[in-house]
Amino acid sequence: MKVMDYMAQHGHEQLVYCSNPEAGLRAFIAIHDTTLGPALGGARMRPYASEAEAVEDVLRLARAMTYKAAVAGLNLGGGKAAIIGDPHKDKTEALFKALGRFIHSLGGRYITTEDVGTTEREMQYIRPETPYVTGLPVSWGGSGDPSPATSFGIYRGMKACAHEVYGSDSLAGKTVALQGVGKVGYGLAKYLHEEGAKLVVTDIYPEAAQRVHEELGATLVEPEAIYDVDCHIFSPCAFGAVLNARTIPRFRCQIVAGAANNQLETDEDGQELHHRGILYAPDYVLNGGGLINISYEVGRAYSHDAAWEQVTRIYDTIGQIIALAKADGICTAQAADRMAEARIAAARKVKNLYLG
Ligand code: NAD
Q1: Region 102-118: what's the mean pLDDT?
Q2: Cβ-Cβ contacts under 8 Å for 288 (sequence gap 6 or more)
Q3: Of 145, 178, 210, 239, which is best to mutate to test ligand 1, by the most ligand atoms within 8 angstroms of its C-beta?
Q4: Is the CB of 185 within 6 Å of ligand 1?
Q5: What average pLDDT score do residues 225-229 get?
Q6: Does CATH number 3.40.50.10860 belong to domain 3-67+76-133?
Q7: How many degrees, rounded to 5, is the angle at CA 216 between CA 170 and CA 313?
Q8: Which fold has domain 147-289+316-340?
């Protein structure tokens, strides 16, 4: 990959190489676009096979954060950090403090938070080095685990989809096939159960599935059988690229609405769902609740009520995306991108007017 060409093609502003051998730090920070505000995105720790793999990942993820923040109506841009290392073996306080100093050197252009392979604990290590960190525990004035807000946002967006397809946003009596009942999926299952939806659930971790069966009366199926369930809504809450040429022909649902990131394997899969008359709630719109919640830590004292009030509005955003898709004759995934790009372009125009 030619990094500079890739950055120019996809609109990235900056890529920072972070090295501190004494602390065992090898990391990259990518800032995609700061038109709407400082770039916020998690610090991901993974045993990347190569530096090139980490660079590719961090650039791709930073760009996705720009779109997520833009459609959520936040005054934030997109960024990400990728740390090369095994989160089970290589996490030390020194490593995260060293990363914190690099983050601080960017003067607030990048704000970090937890991500795959990192937790609140590491954010606490970073905090003495820089104020540009979120995802701190409630006892530190932060917003804590983002998963409950993510679950709530998905529930709200799912209701907006039901309103479009069934003429009512009630989920009572609707069958929802849920793939993955971890932190987000379990929280979502509780909202759905409360409202009277029927749950068909799978998880590769048997205890997680069993808990939903015992507590919420969910019917359990094997992981591979979830794609064939006759249901109203399929909700992928486990992993990405789950909407593809192999799974879509098997679907017997009218709506796809779940938490997983990057659900579409290719752009064509979004079109295919559209052609089959299946309403797809774009993943980064629907799962933006966690980001919205965390954004309330930036530059102000965190307020749970204010944050959750904004998460509620994912319902309206999904409605706007459906309306835009219909008006422009495009699929919902394209409509979400178009909405994000329009907001950024409008903000850039205003900035250019004033800054010359
Ligand atoms: P999690 O790890 O707590 O839960 C994922 C669950 O999926 C686990 O119980 C796991 O056993 C299960 N699973 C994995 N592979 C599976 C398979 N093949 N079939 C069935 N189940 C399988 O993660 P989470 O925090 O609940 O996040 C779920 C998804 O939502 C992830 O893709 C994550 O990136 C995305 N997401 C999470 C948040 C958040 O706030 N946690 C925010 C945005 C997006």
Answers
A1: 96
A2: 68, 71, 72, 153, 314
A3: 239
A4: yes
A5: 98
A6: yes
A7: 40
A8: Rossmann fold (3.40.50)
